[in-house]
Amino acid sequence: MAKTEIATLRMGKRGISPAGWILRGAAAGAAGTTALNVVTYLDMAVRGRPASSTPENTVEKLVQAAHLTVPGQGATRESRVQGLGALTGLVAGIGVGGLLGLARASGFRAGTMLTTLTVLVSTNGPMTVLGVTDPRTWSVVDWVSDLVPHLAYAAVVTTTMDALDR
User: How far apart are CA 149 and CA 26, in angstroms?
Assistant: First the structure.
């Protein structure tokens, strides 16, 4: 049993440790990320809209801020940046799931709305701070295009976490 500022972490239902809940949360986050990607790609297919460049722009800003370089030139470098952009989304989705699992281990159960808010802030927050995007300038369509996939993520994460808590 470990004492933290938030709560006491201990073996939960059925003897699941905090590490076990982090792993369950990460799995739920992976499922949620898949749902987010499906909704996003469906939106692109239905509306004929292009992919967002914000993941790649975020990588470029992070690389610049960290005084690093992405190796390669031309198409090779662009492909690496695109791959890193996609990976940042996967890491964010799985990471938020892991944190929600840790919260579950302490007895806190985030619902779909709180999970949606958490993932919106954790993904759009860094991009806003880096100057990649400014949600204050988004149109209603922009907000819906961002909110709906994140809501799908949250619904899948919450449902999966609840199923794993039975």
Answer: 18
| Closest among 2, 13, 16, 26 to 101, alpha carbons compared | 26
**CA separation for the pair 20, 11 (Å, rounded):** 9
Alpha-carbon distance 79 to 24, whole Å?
A: 32
Token couple for 33: 């990320």
95-142 per-position pLDDT tens digit: 999 999 999 998 888 899 999 999 999 999 999 999 999 999 999 999
Q: How far is CA 148 from CA 17, 97, 110, 129, in A?
A: 33, 18, 18, 22
Rounded-to-integer distance, Cα 103 and Cα 26, Å: 12
Q: Which residues of the chain have pLDDT under 50?
A: 6
What is the full DSSP assignment across the chain? -EE-SS-EE---GGG--HHHHHHHHHHHHHHHHHHHHHHHHHHHHHHTPPPPSHHHHHHHHHHHHTT------HHHHHHHHHHHHHHHHHHHHHHHHHHHHHHHHTT----HHHHHHHHHHHHHHHHHHTTS--GGG--HHHHHHHHHHHHHHHHHHHHHHHHHT-
